[in-house]
Amino acid sequence: FKGGDTCEYLLSSGRFLGEKVWQPHSCMMHKYKNSEAKNCLIDKHVVFIGDSRIRQLFYSFIKLINPQVKEEGIKHGNIPFEDKSASIKVDFLWYPEVNGSMRQRIKSWTEGSVAKPHIIVVGAATWSIKIHNGSNEALAQYKINITSIAPLLEKLAISSDVYWVLQDPVYEDMLSESRKMITNEKIDAYNEAAVRILNSSSRNSKAKVKVFSVSKLIAQETIMKSADGLHLPESSRDTNAMILMNVYCNKIMKPIDGSCCQPQPPLTLIQKIAFCFFTLSIIGYLIISLIHRNNYRKNKSCTDLESGEEKKPAISTPGVSTLEMLLHCFCKLGLIMTYFYLCDRANLFMKENKFYTHSSFFIPIAYILVLGVFYTENTKETKVLNREQTDEWKGWMQLVILIYHISGASTFLPVYMHIRVLVAAYLFQTGYGHFSYFWIKGDFGVYRVCQVLFRLNFLVVVLCIVMDRPYQFYYFVPLVTVWFMIIYATLAVWPQIIQKKANGNCLWHFGLLLKLICLLTCIYFLSYSQGAFERIFSFWPLSKCFELNGNVYEWWFRWKLDRYVVFHGMLFAFIYLALQKRQMISEGKGDPLFSNRVSNVLLFISIVSFLTYSIWASSCKNKTECNELHPSVSVVQILAFILIRNIPGYVRSVYSSFFAWFGKISLELFICQYHIWLAADTKGILVLIPGYPMFNVLVSTFIFVCVAHEISQITNDLAQIVVPKDNSTLLKRLLCIAGFFSGLHFFSAMQDQSRH
Description:
About 60% of the residues lie in helices and about 5% in strands. It is an alpha/beta fold. The protein has three domains: about 15-255, Rossmann fold (3-Layer(aba) Sandwich); about 350-355 and about 365-725, no CATH class; about 725-755.
């Protein structure tokens, strides 16, 4: 840890990921769009002073504001640019040498009430080397001139951003005869003089000229592609312009994926309250532990010398043990949340941009596949989609999704479309699992609902408080929560139709099908009526949960993307349980699901359907068009996978315990990755160990998986305490939870008011 000044890293160090993607050391660089650049630079005046290399940088910079600009200005003269819509002025001033003329121009901005530019970018040296044939006298004069200019630049740096651009290396083999005297040795000497002299007299940290040395590193990698050996290729100078934009604009625009030059966000009121709560929980747990330890020592088992019998210690009361368990959970959770905050809100650990390559995605996939097959065991039961099999399914899907996120594979459309099927498969299991429970058990009690809602939402609610993020930010949990409530409402409203009742009269099956048809009709209507959907979720308090950036459009998009798959899961569960009840399928160990002929035909159709979907997804050219078809066709690959996995008896009788272990904590893995495996709210990668990418991934993954497992245990323990089976106690707890959310809403309103 060398301090939190990521601006210094951005301006001085980094490396290329691939050929064109520049990765600053320790932080993430945002790619600014034209609209963002205009918003940042509104009413600003930017000046570039120097030679033809600085002119190149000037053009790349103004193209970030207006891409239509052409490089048609006077080569050896001043070039003005103005964007009247945003009142932005950017000027290039032709001063190819550091001399008296340049000094006079800079001095004019320091005198009287002359308007100073907001950003000043200066750099020159190659002309001095060329005109004076690389003489030592020219270098000595350069040092004298820059010494006279340095105090003026430092004075301007008090109120403006001043950057001195060091000279890029040249590709000597390509230089023309008139430029042969410009050698990298001479350039290094001029750069060394500039760095030594600039800021040498400055004692005020604010009055500091920023040395733009990163362009040297970029040029070292790309100057071979130069057209003349002196000027950088277009992609390299565009990178330099983007770095300049990040240095100035990140602290103003605060982009999520631009961690360079961003200050640490101040603690909110709710975060401070959460910090106090977790601190008190840790102190309370330590006090109770000490008291129990002292009591244990006093009542420790000992042998009675007279009777020869062992005395047993007094048993602690249930009230104290429940309190201790509660404080123990919050103590662990407090330490874990501190780690979350340090990873993704404090400027303690480094963050880097993602960069996709096929090998970074497919090699880890192959690796976990081998591990999964290695840990193959026999299942306890051989029913279709038994618990071990669904845990295995969730596990391998979650691991694939994690690799997809960390490798940045969303940029590769075929992979993106297949991952969309995996997300749909999670929701399919939601429909299948909850429908099966309510249909078989007929348990529509409040206890069941509260247990499910608590287990789904506990971690997300805590993260919303600690990480200062809206509920909708963790989109998958709101999605499964709403679908659970829809399934519950569909089956719980009158008439309640369950398997036991339907077995007595077949007409009840038609009643249930009518309910499912009504549900499908509602889904279809809402998916094509954005206005109706937004009106429903814009009502308070739903709007507090489902708004993101002031509207519910993101929620509508997420819901619409997999709108039919939960219904498909419910329908599949209904058909499967009906066939099972009528003994039309064989689920014995090693037996095929149907007769050999039917099984072979269904297996062939399933394999063809599975491959057909994959071919279609791999041939996708337009993400929007493919997303439109996805809700209707994703079920094809899901059903094909279920049949391939369950029709052969020997395949149905085994499972991977490796994948199943991850499946049991899949929800926690999905949520925790946002902040302690990825970084900047999933936009980048957390770097605990800089300079060693593979070792860093191993260490951060180990911690991430351990934390997810621990949070799963904490959630299960707290669910038993917070959601008891006794109805009267449960009602009191629900009133307490309602009070908690009312208080949270009150403090949130205070927080919003103070921000405005």
